[in-house]
Amino acid sequence: MKLINPWENIKIKKIGNKEVIQNFDDDIHLLYVLVGELSVESEGSYLTLQKDDFFILHKSKSYTCHTGDSKVFQLSLQYFYSEEDESDPYSYYFTGDSVKNTHSSDMQVTYLLNQLVELYIFKEQKRISEIFEVYFNLINTLEKKYFVKVQLESDRSIKQKVEEVKFYIDNNFDKEIRLSDLAGKLFVSEQYLSKLFSNEIGLSLSEYLIRKRLEKVRKDLFETEKSVTNIAFSAGFSNINSFNRLFKKYQGLTPSEYRRESKKGIEIQSSPFAIPNEELTDLQKYFVEEEEGNSADKLKIDVSESEDFDYDKYLINLGYAGDLLHTSFSQQIRYTQEQNAFRYGRIWGLFNNVLFEQVGDEFDFTKVDEILQTVLDAGMIPFLELGFKGKLIHETHTKIIKKEPFELKTNRMDGILLRFTTFLNHCIDKYGDEEVSKWIIEIWKPNAFVLKNTDQEQLSLIEMNDGQVDISQYPHYIRYFSQISESIKRIVPEIQVGGCGLSLDIERGDMRNFLRKWKQEKVKPDFISIGIYPIDEIKHGYVVEKRANPISHDEDYMLNKIKDIRTLLDELDLGTKLYVTEFNVTILNREIVNDTAFKGAYILKNILSILSYCDLIGYWQLSDLTVTSFDTAKKEIFGGAGILSKNGVPKIGYYAFKFLKKLGPKRIFASENLIVTRKEKQYQLLCYHYSHLNATYYYDTIGGFHKNNAYAIFDNEQPIDWTIELNGFEAAGKYRITKYSIGKNNGNFLEEVNAISQIDHFDKEMIQYLKQKCVPKIEIQTQIISDDKLVLEIHLSPYDICLFDIQKVSD
């Protein structure tokens, strides 16, 4: 089969010292440092790149490259983005670098850029299909990780508004831009926007737009032989006569005269991207030497350099408060906390009148005390969600297998405040002010969609002094929250009170307006709490040909959502913490995905990617025991979302958190599926092999997957083999390396159950046997470090998670 020339889609050019780069097309342009150092100057700011660093160039922006003798390349990737929806308010662009705005995928981009340069240097010896494979892998990675959207917003500061307008013009100058449209998007008058822009930039908006268009015209006149008319239209000018007048006004020459004068004495290169033969030979020699000393799967990490790493942010959803009254469940909680994996234990439903009974003005604290003591005895800090939420067990998003409704004693605001104040005064008397001050209280905003599905819409209706309000509506919730928070803070001033359990998959619409309104209130939340379940469709009608309850195909769904809301909070300057109080791959508790080895890598991938964006991360949920019903009486495997089975057998998710807890407070290195940390003189290396759901899952309309064919719904990834060289150790000598590994072929719950029997209803003896089998494999070896180097050979099959603990021992 004959393929087109890939180098028509990929342009690679070696950058000279003090070379100026300015690109006006919509392709993706990157700078990549193969050897040496690069300083990039633009608009008075500098960015320094070292070997294997990269930087994505922005459209129409001018960059001066100070390279010295370094080997630096510009890679230009042909790219087409189709804006199918003209009403889409966003502008899309690529951005990122491996220095200032680091990302977990930086190592992957660096590797692919290095491959592309090498393929170009040896292009006569390489297969076309091999080149296209790298090209499309790079495009795919950039689209998923470095493709962002920007929308002109009305609630920005003056400086932000002007910067956004400037950025919008820089990226869209070649399209029709009207001042009235820009002003409309920002909800300001044309005159006001024009004045703001002129004051900040020093040019009027129309003047800036003309100059930006003329920059592209001059570049095309000098570098191409396109007709003047085509050049003018491609730069955004719609009338050739007015263009000619403007060009002569600014340049003092006609376009044709400028082209002729600018090219005088210039030797036109037949191939401007060609590398001289002598330099090409040097580059080929470099890659050959690199190939002999390294492989694509070899990684060198200097352990002497590190940064602070705040990793103790883990919360576990214990469940509905009433479940903690069961002895078997409280035993599972204590078992989980033997490793102190979780700092907080979250419960809800504590104010249900069934648990916190009230007769007149008298309260019975018997059950409440037992529930709280169970959390405290496990060494966890209580995280109390004190909204009107009962217990639901989902088979699908709209089918509920079992529910325990919340019983509200009174819907009068004064009665609700009495419950809060009485509860807190009792807790201080019993546990002390110092202890209670550590607790966290979350006030849930009832979700109208959830209440409707559970036939409890009346729970959102509260009787205030001036009448009935619906606290599922944002303005009424804010008022409700303020009164509760003030009452709590009068009793325990240091306690954290926040809300409101926003579900990012079904409450996206008015979030910005809601948070902006909340910022204006006197009483603000100490934290914003959110829940994330990667659901593509939930409220609206489903596509018949596809699965009715799909998990998003976007494997970075959670990261993208967190980045969006973190950006929103920063822009609004709300000054509050961000807590992810609930996350999982699905809210369902009858989904076989929950019992596969996939969940270990899923937890590690998502937690490690969002740690820097939030202040607390809560997994949903601890145990399958809390989601059992009539349909699970004779099953140990039924797709429950817990990290423990209903009889307390640990699943791979349990060990994912156990591994996370072993990390140190100093981060040495982090990439997409690998992190290295340090705790004093002890080193930890945690890695995983993530594989996402495939098309089979999305087009399975009848849910025909079970414990024997569960892995058919995942991508068929190849194993990962690494050689990792750690250097920079403080002392030579003997080091002990303890390896903990668990995965599909080693210790995972689902496979160990299948190995015993196709019937998974087990007696006490078999449950004890499974607890002993569902553990990581442990291997111990020693290495003598005499040349400041320790080498690890790592093999990861899909879904494997692996922890290495390295420490110096006596000889």
From TrEMBL:
Keyword Transcription regulation annotated: yes
Keyword vocabulary terms for this entry: DNA-binding, Glycosidase, Hydrolase, Transcription, Transcription regulation
GO molecular function, a single term: sequence-specific DNA binding
Any one Pfam family match given in the protein's UniProt record, by short name: Glyco_hydro_39
InterPro entries registered for this protein in UniProt: GH, GH39_cat, Homeodomain-like_sf, HTH_AraC, HTH_AraC-typ_CS, Tscrpt_reg_AraC-type_HTH
Keyword Nucleus assigned: no
Occurrences of domain HTH araC/xylS-type (ranges): 163-261
SUPFAM superfamilies referenced in this protein's UniProt entry, alphabetically: (Trans)glycosidases, Glycosyl hydrolase domain, Homeodomain-like
Recorded family membership: Belongs to the glycosyl hydrolase 39 family.
Listed name of the protein: Beta-xylosidase
Source organism per UniProt: Trichococcus patagoniensis
